Structures are given as C-alpha cells and as structure tokens.
Amino acid sequence: MTSIVLVHPEIPGNTGAVGRTCVALDMELVLIHPLGFEISDKKLKRSGLDYWQHIRLVEFRSWHAFLEERAPRADQLFLFEEFGAKNFYEPEYPEDAYLVFGRETKGLPQAIIEQHADRLFKLPMRSDKVRSLNLANTVAAAAYQAVKGQFTG
After folding, report:
1. How far apart are CA 79 and CA 153, in angstroms?
2. Exposed e or buried b for every residue in 63-82, given b needs 16+ CB within 10 A?
3. CA-to-CA distance for 102 and 32, rounded, in angstroms?
C-alpha cells in the first residue's frame, strides 16, 4: 500500500484534506511528530469531513522512529521539495511507496534532505511567480501520479 508521510505538519486543515485524499486512494496516512496541532483539532476533522473515521492513521514520535520501525527501501522513498532535482512524473512508483512531505512553512528538515538527497522530487510549475503549492494540493497531485497505473477505467 502507498503511504503519505507528513513530517511535522503545522496546519490542521491541510492534514485533514490530505487524510481525505488518503481515504479516496486507499492510502495510509503517516504523521511524524511533533505536529503543530492536536489530532482532536476541530479544523482537522472539518477538513477531513466525515471521512476521518476511515483514515488508516499511523503516528511516529520522530523521523528516526519511522525509519527504525518501517525500514523503507531507498526505492520506496519519494521526498517532495520545491527544489527537488527530479520531476515527479519521472519515476515508476512501487505500490508500497512512501510519499514524504515536510511542514508547510519550512519543508523537510535539512537532516532528512541530506540523508536522502538522491530521492528528492518536485512538482513542475510553468510560472516563476509561485514558489510552491499548498501542501494538500501537492500531496493530491503526487498521490494520483503515484497510483495512476493502478486504475483500470
């Protein structure tokens, strides 16, 4: 199963919307602490609407704890950053991919970027007037790209 991994998300509405995308695409939502909100936050649940109860949610106290427990292969990790060297259309995503996104204001921590520098991807943009997209929009675009070969009709 493909998983969406949010590292230190800050805005509950974005996480709620990402959760809804996870339900739509039958993906797991992995949250890496610390979070900028409480899971019980009303804004989180409002954005996830009545789908929140269907989210396969897993939480880890840190990125290190995630790596330790899940032990992902290098080819499973796809880290998304505005300055990623590779276009997100390029790779073949395995069905057990981890699509990893950083916090809304700062992206992924530098240590994670350095550790996985060869796994950085970006969503291309035609305009130079926008640095990045909203986290929930970026996740949705990447998630649909990752599973595009799994749809039959």
Report:
1. 28
2. beebeeeeebeeebbbbbbe
3. 10
Question: How does pLDDT run across 65-81, given as a tens digit for each residue?
Answer: 999 999 999 999 999 99
Looking at residue 84, which CATH number applies to its domain? Answer: 3.40.1280.10
77, β-bridge pairs: 98
pLDDT digits (tens, 9 = 90+) for 93-136: 999 999 999 999 999 999 999 999 999 999 998 888 887 789 99
Alpha-carbon distance 116 to 113, whole Å?
5
Give how far the C-alpha of residue 10 lies from the chain's centroid of Cα atoms, to the nearest Å: 13
Structurally, how many domains does the chain consist of? 1
Question: Model-level pTM?
Answer: 0.93
Work out the average pLDDT over 38-49. Answer: 64
Sign of CA dihedral 22, 144, 86, 128: negative
